[in-house]
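Hi C.,

You asked whether I'd gotten around to modeling the 152-residue construct. I have! Everything is below, sequence then structure, no commentary in between.
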Amino acid sequence: MKRRFLRPPLVPALALLVLLLAALLARWVAPHDPQQQSLLARLTPPVWLGGGTWRYPLGTDSLGRDVLSNVIYGLRTSFLAGFLSVAISVAVGATTGLFAGYRSGSWFETIALRAADVQLSLPAVLIALAVLAVFGRGLEKVIVVIGLVGWA
C-alpha cells in the first residue's frame, strides 16, 4: 500500500504530454480549420448522440465550426496563459521572498510580509475583476493579473 503513493503519476503526466503535443501540433492534428464555417453542418450533435457523425466527433457550433478543432487550437491559449502566469508569480514571489529573507529584520521584510498578508486576505477574483475593469480586457492583461495575484 505504501509503494502505491511513491509511484510517479504516470497517467496524468501522459495526458498532459498528449495535450501539450496536440497544442504544439494543432495545425496538423486538428481535423478542420477552426474558423471554417459550414451552415449546412451547424449544430451537429456529438458522435455519441443521435444524429452525430464521425466527421465532427464533438459536433459543431451555431455557425457550423468544428468544436474539436476549436478545443485543440484553444489549448495553445490555455497553456500560454497558465505557464506565463505561473512564471510571473514565481518570479515576483521568489524574488520578494529571497530578498526579504536575506534582509531579515529590515524594513523590507516587514513591508513584504504586510503586502503578502494584504494580498492573501483579498479575494483573487475581486482583484482581477477590478484591475481588468480599470485597464481593459485582453489576454496579456489577464496573464499579468493572474501572475501578480498569486505571488504571495
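If it helps when you're writing up: Helices lie at 2-6, 10-24, 26-29, 67-102, 107-121, 124-135, 139-149.

Thanks,
B.
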